[in-house]
Amino acid sequence: MRFRPFSCFASAALSIGLLASSVQAQTFPPKKSISLVVGFAAGGAADAAARMIAKKLGDNIGQTVVVQNKAGAGGILAHQQVANADNDGSVLLLGSVGPMTISPHLMKVPYDPFKDLAPLSGGVHFPNVLVVHKGIGAKTLSEFIELAKSEPGLIDFASSGSGSASHLAGELLNQRAGVEMVHVPYRGGGQALQDLIGERVASYFAAPPTAAPHIKVGTLIPLATTGLERSADMPTIPTVAEAGYPGFIALNWYAFLGPGTMPEDIQERWNQELVKVLNDPEIRQSLLDYGLTPQPTSRAELTQFMEQESAQWRKTIQERGLKGE
């Protein structure tokens, strides 16, 4: 079948239309309100970081950035929402370690974290701190491990949910220390912490900002933190690596992503704006005061970081024979 050529007028009109469409597609910032989706309820570390950054981001670009909390399924629902969102740059995600690099190895998730979501920049990271209730009798990690070895299958550890950073930190310790602590998943860190204080579970890899008040009054005993270096907020507490398990690392991290179909130029513009905010001295200090270490990166650096995290947790999950709960 032979197609008739367009008239000059039709060709010109089409060219103008395509140019206008291209300009419209590349408009930055988007004309409409911008959503920053967070997969956790208001009040936690992720929400605090999101609100600090969103306010400064909005001020810098002259556009409103609204934090949208979408809790559920350990953050998976929020990641799914952004994977299916408009790709015009109006919807961003504060993604996290669990839904991005742990849950996809535990269960079938409704998105591909490396195809359906576009990495924009690292956000923040922080170690967990392994805490036990004072009734457990252990004051060091080695004492706790000895207790777990002497009572196999009787010592447990809480987590904020199956596939969370606190869950995999416990499983990694099981693997490295040769113990079999029992995993007790909760629907969030708040409930896990309360049951630990109530001595209904033995231990929990908690976020330092939430555990610190209970450590201060002696209700909880800190044994070790999960970064490679000691936490600036808890400098007297050794790392798990220092306490006898070299190379042990299990960080909580949050990163900025967009829909996987977001145009490259808009991805790059968001990277520039996010890195600018994360490097802002006032924002940086505010995050550090909250126990969160800023982690601005290029898009390529974030991709590489997520690939490394995914590989580590895939190995742990496979070797431990873990399944989604």
UniProtKB/TrEMBL annotation:
Signal peptide: 1-25
Family: Belongs to the UPF0065 (bug) family.
Pfam family, one: TctC
CDD domains the UniProt entry points to: PBP2_Bug_TTT
Protein source organism: Alcaligenes aquatilis
Name this polypeptide is given: Tripartite tricarboxylate transporter substrate binding protein
Keyword Signal annotated: yes
Keywords: Signal
